[in-house]
């Protein structure tokens, strides 16, 4: 079942601004951007032991007016804040204005029990500028119809995979 605005407001309270709530979700804001550094000599994916091979990333700086500039041919990671209420499933969709401007979102589902930073991938076919803290992604929250108590406990829980690289 997808949770409606009134239910989400009861759960999240004033964590979000009133205009962040939509009839069927919450608009998440751009909190930071990293650019993926391509390495043509490295194949990304999984090692035989199940460990992950991820691209190197570096922070993308804002311009003097607080805008991030996105250009075609580059891959970006957007930080949308922290999933602080992990007892729901989150599915992420790009806001339509950015999609109409040529943006493409790459996301997955935040599993039940996930607690950590929300990162999504972004690419564009046109030059796009977006200010820091702009609403960029809508999250649709769902609940399981039968929760057996099983919760996510993988490599990304509480940002473990990123902390290990530091």
Biggest beta sheet attributes = 5 strands, antiparallel
Subunit arrangement of the protein: single chain
Low-confidence stretches: none
DSSP strand content? 35-45%
**Could you tell me how far the N terminus lies from the C terminus, measured between alpha carbons in angstroms?**
39 Å
Strand order of the largest sheet: 1-2-14-9-11
- The whole-angstrom Rg is 17 Å
Number of helices: 3
Element-level helix/strand string: HEEEEEEEEEHEEEEEH
Based on secondary structure, the structural category is mainly beta
Shape: globular
- What is the helix content? 10-25%
Brief rundown of the structure:
This protein is mainly beta and 166 residues long. Helix content is 11%, strand content 40%. The chain has helices spanning 5-12, 96-100, 160-165, and strands at residues 21-22, 25-29, 32-37, 45-46, 52-53, 56-59, 67-70, 76-83, 89-94, 103-106, 109-110, 116-124, 128-131, 135-142.
Which tags fit this structure?
5-stranded antiparallel sheet; globular; 166 residues; mainly beta
How would you describe what is shown here?
This protein has helices at 5-12, 96-100, 160-165; strands spanning 21-22, 25-29, 32-37, 45-46, 52-53, 56-59, 67-70, 76-83, 89-94, 103-106, 109-110, 116-124, 128-131, 135-142. It is globular and about 45 Å long. The strands form four sheets. A five-stranded antiparallel beta sheet has the order 1-2-14-9-11. It has a five-stranded antiparallel beta sheet with strand order 6-3-8-12-10. A two-stranded antiparallel ribbon has the order 4-5. The model has no long low-confidence stretch (mean pLDDT 85). It is built from three helices and 14 strands. A hairpin with a 5-residue loop joins strand 4 and strand 5 (52-53). With 166 residues, the protein is mainly β.
